[in-house]
C-alpha cells in the first residue's frame, strides 16, 4: 500500500494507524501547493480531489476520505481492536465519533488555515469550535479515549487534528481533558514513529 501524505496534515491519522497495525506501506509525500508528489507524479491523476490522505491499494485502487481509509485499515487487522466489528452498535458509535471529528473538528480547524477569511469570521469559527471542545472534554474527562473500549482509529484522527490548535495559538489547557488526551496519544510509539517519519 502507498499512503500519499503531507507533513502534519490529516494524513497523519492513517499514517499512525498503519504503524499501529504494523502493516507494510510506502509513504509518498505530496506538495499540496503544486499537487506533485516527491516521486514526480501528478497527484491529481492519483486523487482528482487533490487532497491528502489517499491510500493506494496493491490492486491499484485508490481510497480517499480519512474516515473511510481509517476503517479500511482497521478492518485489515481486526485483532488489533482499533475498530469494533462491522454490524455492531459499537461500530456505529465509532462512526459517530469519526463523523464528529471530521465535520466538527477537522472541518472547523481546517477553515482557520484559510488566509482569506477575515478575523471576525475566524472568531465565529473558533466560538463554534470551542463548544465542540467542551463536548469532547465531557467524554475525555470520564475515559481516556473516545471509545470506552480503548484506543481506536477515532483517537488517531482526533489527535491529528487537535495538533493544529498550536498553529492558531489555541491553548488546549483551557480544556484540561483534551490536553491530557494529546499528551497520552503523543506517547504512543506509533505516533512518535509517524511524526519522526514526517518531520523532514
Ligand atoms: N474530506 C477530506 C479532507 C482532506 C483534507 O482536508 N486534506 C487537506 C490536508 S488536512 C489537504 O490536503 N488540503 C489540500 C487541498 O485541499 O488542496 C478527508 O476527510 O480526508
UniProtKB/TrEMBL annotation:
Annotated ranges, domain GST C-terminal: 87-200
InterPro entries: Glutathione-S-Trfase_C-like, Glutathione-S-Trfase_C_sf, Glutathione_S-Trfase, Glutathione_S-Trfase_N, GST_C, Thioredoxin-like_sf
Gene3D superfamilies linked to this entry: 1.20.1050.10, Glutaredoxin
Alphabetized UniProt keyword annotations: Transferase
Domain of life according to the entry: Bacteria
UniProt xrefs under PROSITE patterns: GST_CTER, GST_NTER
Domain GST N-terminal: 1-81
Parts of the chain that traverse the membrane: none
Family matches, as Pfam families: GST_C (PF00043), GST_N_2 (PF13409)
GO molecular function annotation: glutathione transferase activity
Classification via CDD domains: GST_C_Beta, GST_N_Beta
Keyword Transferase set for record: yes
Transferase keyword on record: yes
EC number per UniProt: 2.5.1.18
Stored PANTHER family: GLUTATHIONE S-TRANSFERASE GSTA, GLUTATHIONE S-TRANSFERASE-RELATED
NCBIfam families assigned to the protein according to its UniProt record, in alphabetical order: PRK10542.1
Name the UniProt record assigns to this protein: Glutathione S-transferase
Organism: Pseudomonas lini
Gene: gstA
Amino acid at each position: 500500500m502507498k499512503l500519499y501524505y503531507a507533513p502534519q496534515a490529516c494524513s497523519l491519522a492513517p499514517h499512525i494507524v498503519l504503524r499501529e497495525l504494523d502493516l507494510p506501506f510506502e509513504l509518498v509525500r505530496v506538495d499540496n501547493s503544486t499537487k506533485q508528489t516527491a516521486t514526480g507524479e501528478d497527484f491529481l491523476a492519483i486523487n482528482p480531489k487533490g487532497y491528502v490522505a489517499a491510500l493506494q491499494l496493491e490492486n491499484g485502487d485508490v481510497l480517499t476520505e480519512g474516515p473511510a481509509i481509517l476503517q479500511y485499515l482497521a478492518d485489515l487487522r481486526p485483532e488489533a481492536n482499533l475498530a469494533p466489528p462491522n454490524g455492531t452498535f459499537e461500530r456505529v458509535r465509532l462512526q459517530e465519533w469519526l463523523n464528529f471529528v471530521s465535520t466538527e473538528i477537522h472541518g472547523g480547524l481546517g477553515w482557520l488555515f484559510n488566509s482569506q477569511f477575515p478575523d471576525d469570521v475566524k472568531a465565529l469559527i473558533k466560538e463554534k469550535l470551542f463548544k465542540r471542545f467542551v463536548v469532547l472534554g465531557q467524554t475525555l474527562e470520564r475515559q481516556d479515549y473516545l471509545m470506552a473500549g480503548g484506543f481506536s482509529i477515532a483517537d488517531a484522527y482526533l489527535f491529528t487534528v487537535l495538533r493544529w490548535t498550536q498553529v492558531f495559538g489555541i491553548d488546549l489547557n483551557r480544556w484540561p481533558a483534551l490536553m491530557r488526551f494529546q499528551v497520552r496519544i503523543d506517547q504512543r510509539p506509533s505516533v512518535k514513529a509517524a511524526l519522526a517519519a514526517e518531520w523532514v
